[in-house]
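Readers of this paper often ask what the protein records in our data store actually look like. Such a record has a labelled line for the sequence and another for the backbone structure tokens. Nothing more is needed to write down the fold, since each code stands for a local backbone conformation. The record that follows is passed on verbatim for readers who wish to inspect the format.
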Amino acid sequence: MRFILAAVGLIVAGLLAVWLIKAVIGFVLSIIFYVVAGVLLVAGAMYIYGKAKRSISGENRRRLPY
């Protein structure tokens, strides 16, 4: 009887450990996803702002050499 209880306890502990590991990995991956999405959003906004600013100020146009 003790053997069966020990086996069931080990199985339950293993299942709990697997569930906990999956939950932690899922949480970490979701945080990484949101950070990457935020970085891409900010970088894209900076790129668009820079392009708009340069097009308004005319920094892309070539100047005459004299």
Q: What stands out?
A: The mean pLDDT is 88. Helices lie at 2-57. Residues 2-57 form the longest helix (56 residues).
